[in-house]
Amino acid sequence: MSLTDINIREKEFHNNLQSQTKGRFENIFYKSLYNINEDFFSHLQRNASQSQILDFGCGTGLFVERAIKYKPKKIVGIDISEVSIDKAKKNAKKMLLDAEYYVDNCEKTRFESNSFDIVYGTGILHHLEFNKCLDEIHRILKSNGSLIFIEPLGTNPIINLYRKLTPKSRSKDEHPLINKDFEYIQNKFLDTNIKYYGFLTLIFSPFYKLPRESNFFKFLTKLDQILFKFKIFRILAWSVLITAKKS
């Protein structure tokens, strides 16, 4: 497995992250993105049955554990972090999950062309050389295969300021997505859809606990989606859900 300097730094960062027993402080804010995860799994559930699926940058396999319930024909997870893959394998064995895991480079995977019906990932593309990994996803997807990714945006000035003030909380080379990244996806794939999340749900996150049970969160979610119809508010979103198809 050949690795660039950036690949090596990312591997070291995530090996260290997964070796820690204490969670990241930022985790307290992820409840504001509860709806993006629900929409992600809803989309996956509609398309996963009898599909060959790749979890692209699978980490410890948490999303595989849920996706496998949708009865794919085969599900594989890859990650550059040996620590993550070791944890994923141990969890799969403990839970009796029929999933395969490999240490691999998402910019140049081990797989043959046209191998998967679905490639998905969560918070992985912004850690990679964007065009290179999208080209690789295109190569390993079958004709009419689809991708679905959750990724952070790099356009909210307040969130970007927080990122600059807390450099140790993230890898040196990560680059939350901006417009040119979406343009590349749109030029490379068909039926590209970008949906925005995490504006008011993030601002008012101190005022609700469990999003699933909070009417206030549901109200904020609906209001966010109204605001995101206007381009000016999309800049203020935290994350996006990306779906597209290979021709």
Characterization of this structure:
The protein is of the alpha/beta class and about 250 residues long. The chain has one domain: Rossmann fold (3-Layer(aba) Sandwich), CATH 3.40.50. Helices cover about 40% and strands about 20% of the residues. The protein has 10 helices and 7 strands. The chain has a 7-stranded mixed β-sheet, with helices on both faces. The model has no long low-confidence stretch (mean pLDDT about 95).
Annotation keywords:
seven-stranded mixed β-sheet; 247 residues; 10 helices; alpha/beta; 7 strands; Rossmann fold; globular
Distance between the termini: 29 Å
Report the structural category: alpha/beta
- Specify the CATH architecture: 3-Layer(aba) Sandwich
Q: Which fold does the CATH topology refer to?
A: Rossmann fold
Secondary-structure element pattern, one letter each: HHEHEHEEHEHHEHHHE
Number of helices: 10
- At the fourth level of CATH, the homologous superfamily is Vaccinia Virus protein VP39
